[in-house]
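Complex record, two chains
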Amino acid sequence: MTARLSPFLAIMMVVGYAFLYGPIASLVIYSFNASRLVTVWAGFSTHWYVELLHNEAIQGAALTSLEIAVTAASGALLLGTLAGYALQRYRRFRGRALFGALATAPLVMPEVITGLSLLLLFVALEQAVGWPRGRGVPTIAIAHTTLGTAYVAVVVEARLAAFDRSLEEAALDLGARPLKVFLVITLPLIAPALAAGWLLAFTLSLDDLVIASFTSGPSSTTLPMVIFSSVRLGVSPQINALATLFLVAVAVLVTVAGRLMGGAAARRKPGDPGMSG
Amino acid sequence: MIAPAATRPAPQASYLRIEGVAKRFAPGVPAAVDGVSLDIAAGEFFALLGPSGCGKTTLLRMLAGFETPDEGRILIDGVDMAGVPPYRRPVNMMFQSYALFPHMTAAANVGFGLKQDGVPAAEREARVAAMLDLVKLARLAGRKPHQLSGGERQRVALARALAQEPKLVLLDEPLAALDRKLREETRFELVRIQQRVGITFLMVTHDQEEAMSMASRIAVMAQGRIVQLGTPQEIYETPANRFVADFIGGVNLFEGRVLRAQGGLLEVECAEAGTTLFVEHGALPAGSAVAVAVRPEKLVLAPPAGAVNRLQGRVRGAAYRGEASTYEVELAGGKLLRVTLVNAARRAPPYGAGEAVALAFAPAAAVVLAP
């Protein structure tokens, strides 16, 4: 289909995209600026990226962020898969509606509230049972797990809703025990959704600032926190470079996650061989 | 209710025995399956036929072990199946959606059950190859389900259900997903394969033509019960009641009252027909209300003068179907009849709308049903 866009619509589209992505584009462009001044263009350079390589504070923060994101995404995958499975497979149990609402509430909960409540929880726990001792990487990871679990649960539930139960019945019928059925039929078929859920949780953890700020301790500065605090001291093009790398990483992950979710859907609907193009 | 099974020689070896099985999904709603008993012999091609929602699929799922009966017993080869999980039953099912594993090749799908049984790889490969040969798919062994056409997928599903050499194969609407032409070809193919492998087939279908052309015996189900059990011919020619008569093929019904019984003929007074009808039937007390059922193809148009059961009407419309034409004929009293006439000659249908016609049927061609 090649419907021609009217000039008005084309202009509106350009303006709309410029509004959305103009600031991001300028950020990326100025990361290649030779000048120290963020607002003055002085020729192309990858100087700030090289500088970034030698900035140990930023590298440390990046490693911290990565550690937290991997831990949180893995925890969220486990809990979210269980929640999504329960929500989809056990249609009737006492408190199902409440469970469903609670499992997905963090999606819409203001992050400030999530962060504050978790901080209060951790402080109270420390006073009551002595754990967690202070705040740091573990507490941020736990906090991010709660957020990621909701996303994984939604993705897994959606995938299972589209899952043809007769596939599992066929495997049972052919002599496979329930655990075997789950491992060789269910799991491979929902694997794309699991991978997508993990990547989403990973991305959420990677770019979260608010919850991390509430639940972090002195030794646990994440990448978004470094960016945020350094901006208050004046923007260095180094931050532009860092943000650009960050942007690329997130874009790649989200694209892969989207592909995994969409691709699985496309494969389930085998096209009619007679219909080409 | 008639019980043809009792009047026929009992099947020698009853392989599948269903005794008073009932299933209710929720309290207060009508039972999905309501006290069904059946005996199916080894090697039989049996069909459960009924409209959607009659409980036939629920019954099939209870045989496979996916649902548990509330009442009654299911015995396969003499063994009570209560508490036996699906993966331990000597039964394989072919699903309506085929349920082929999308991440496995056709060969891996067919070999899945053998793998669960622990059949060594070499033997498994040979068996898979033999099965794919049986359904004429050897050249597509390496394809994934989404690379196969509907008919090919159907055959992979059949091969998979047969691969473990079960004693009983359950087929849930095996042809429903195919287009009409392929469906008709596949009917013969399925029967041929069933005869070759000698496995008992139990098929569920809502298509009466499919059931009649494939099965050796049919159980017609309605509202969770079996309303008639018999060979295709018994069910078509001597329907037990109005539901069966109407569900299996078309039927014309004349409401009437018995005048008298004489010499194997029943004389039925029938206002709708505008004449007294004669039907071959055992004696019934005079005055009993009955319905005389006549199949559309058993009505004769333009009968010779003096024929019994001669009716007068006017053609309302004709539907040309190629091999036959169906006429709608309105009798003087306003009753509409359907008449099927084979188009034996290559010319336009002989009767047009508005034409007055006479029709008749032989006393042996009609069936007397309770009203």
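Note: The interface with chain A takes residues 64-66, 85-89, 91-93, 95-97, 99-103, 112-113, 116-117, 145-147, 149, 160, 164 of chain B (CB under 8 Å).
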